[in-house]
Design brief:
alpha/beta; Rossmann fold; six-stranded parallel beta sheet; 34% helix; elongated
C-alpha cells in the first residue's frame, strides 16, 4: 500500500541520524510506501546509510518534503538573526508538518536547545516522558533482519566474553571502571573471563560482535536501558541492565536486573548456563514484541497519517 498525500506519494525527510534509529525507520517506511530519506550534517564512523547534502543542500531537501522528522534538533540550531531553530520555524510557516524526536540527553540535560512547536513529539526511552508532557514513547527500532541469534549458538570453549560499550565521552551512564574492576575480580577468583569493549565498530559488524559474547553489560546508571541492550538481546545474548526508572513500562523482564554489585551479578550468570539461556530467550521475545523496526515504522506512519 502506498501512502499518498494530495494524490502523490508522501515525502518524509529525517534530519540527523541518532544511533542509527532514523536509518532503520527510513528502511521500513520505504517498504510501506513512504518516500522517506535521511540527511545529516556530517558522516558517522559506523557506516549508516545516509545523505550528506551540505548545509544549504539539506535545507533544499527539507523544503521539498511534506513532513520533516527532526531527531534531537533542527537542521540549523541557530541562532540565526537571533532566532533558534530557524529552519523549523520557517518550514512550519510554510505548512510543513514537523515531528520532534528526542533520544536521551538532548532532553535530559539540554532541553533549551529546541525552541519550536512540533506537531508530534516522540521520546526514545520512557523515562523521558517526565521531561516532555504530551510526548509519546516510541521504542528504539531494532532491525531483526540484521540482529538475530547465530544458529547454533557457539559453545564457550575458552574465556567467557563480557561485552560493554566504551564511550568516547562522559555522560553515557556506562561505568567503565566499575565494569573493569568487576572483571578483574572474577579473574582473581579463577574465572576464565575477558572484557570486550565496543568502540567504533561499524553498524553492519555489530551483530558479529554481539554473537561473540557470553553476556553484555548495558547502561548501569540512570535506570533505563539503551539500544545496545535491545540489539544484543535480539542476537540472543543475555544482558545486564538497570531498568528501575522504566520497569513499569516494560510488562516483562527482558534483562538481568543490575543488583548494585556487578561482580556478583556476573558470577551468578557465568555459573548458571540455564539462567543465561532463560534471560536470552526473554530478551529476544521482548525485542520482537516491543522493538521490531517494522512495527515501530508503522507507528510513525500512523502518526504521519493523522497529521495529513
Amino acid at each position: 500500500m502506498v501512502f499518498k498525500i494530495r494524490g502523490l506519494k508522501m515525502k518524509v525527510v529525517h534530519c540527523h541520524n541518532i544511533a542509527g534509529v532514523p536509518s532503520s525507520l527510513v528502511k521500513y517506511q520505504r517498504r510501506s510506501g513512504i518516500d522517506a530519506s535521511l540527511v545529516v550534517r556530517h558522516w558517522h564512523d559506523f557506516g549508516f546509510p545516509e545523505k550528506l547534502p551540505g548545509r544549504y543542500g539539506g535545507l533544499l531537501t527539507l523544503l521539498s518534503a511534506d513532513l520533516i522528522h527532526y531527531h534531537s534538533t533542527s537542521w540549523i540550531e541557530g541562532p540565526l538573526l537571533g532566532i533558534r531553530n530557524p529552519d523549523a520555524r520557517v518550514l512550519s510557516l510554510l505548512g510543513k508538518h514537523l515531528i520532534l524526536h528526542y533520544h536521551g540527553d538532548d532532553l535530559r540535560t539540554r532541553p533549551s536547545r529546541v525552541s519550536f512547536e512540533a506537531d508530534h513529539v516522540f521520546v526514545s526511552t520512557p523515562d523521558l516522558l517526565e521531561y516532555e508532557s504530551g510526548a509519546e514513547w516510541l521504542p528504539n527500532p531494532v532491525d531483526l533482519e540484521l540482529f538475530s541469534p547465530s544458529s547454533p549458538r557457539p559453545t564457550v570453549t575458552d574465556a567467557f566474553k563480557i561485552g560493554y560499550y566504551e564511550p568516547r565521552w562522559t555522560g553515557t551512564y556506562v561505568p567503565v571502571q566499575e565494569i573493569e574492576h568487576a572483571i578483574e575480580k572474577l579473574k582473581r577468583e579463577g574465572f576464565q573471563v575477558e572484557g570486550v569493549p565496543a568502540h567504533a565498530i561499524r553498524y553492519d559488524m555489530m551483530p558479529m560482535f554481539y554473537r561473540s559474547l557470553t553476556v553484555l553489560i548495558d547502561k548501569l546508571q540512570g535506570g533505563f536501558y539503551g539500544l545496545m541492550a535491545c540489539e544484543a538481546a535480539a542476537c540472543g545474548i543475555p544482558v545486564v541492565a538497570s531498568t528501575a526508572k522504566v520497569r513499569c513500562h516494560l510488562g516483562a523482564e527482558p534483562f538481568f536486573e543490575f543488583s548494585g554489585d556487578l561482580a556478583e551479578d556476573l558470577r551468578y550468570l557465568l555459573e548458571d548456563e540455564e539462567e543465561r539461556k532463560r534471560i536470552a530467550e526473554n530478551g529476544r521475545n521482548y525485542v520482537e514484541n516491543r522493538h521490531a523496526a517494522s512495527r515501530i515504522a508503522e507507528r510513525t506512519i500512523d502518526i504521519y497519517r493523522s497529521l495529513t
